[in-house]
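Blinded run. Sample ID left blank on purpose so nobody reads anything into the name before looking at the predicted structure. Input follows.
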Amino acid sequence: MSELDLSDVIVDHTRWKIRLLRLVEGGDESFAASALAVAHCVFGRWLEGDGARFASRVSYREAIRAHSDFHHCAEEVVEHARRGDKQGAQTAMGGHFAEASSAFTLAVAKLKRDAEKAGSEWRAASR
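Blinded prediction complete.
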């Protein structure tokens, strides 16, 4: 996988949450399967691939933790939706899921800053 624009990850995260909300409202069931796979989303693959070059940075480890936590919370929402428990899914989306979503966005923003700093340090060192 090539370079990933971490700003796009945050935008995609918002789009992903909208799709999850649509699922809760009785929408796209095919989305449910993809919602649970941490390693199948673009960011998950990047973390395990090219993004691993930042593994020594705290922000990388925080992003991995926040990403995993977010998917775990999404799993709870999806399970409620699959059972037809719309109220339970909505409640789950407003609880730890909302916190996990915010933590994920902050973690990606922090990793983005670190990645940009590392890129500029690398360019300066290679001159």
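Unblinding after everyone has recorded impressions. DSSP finds six helices and no strands in the chain.
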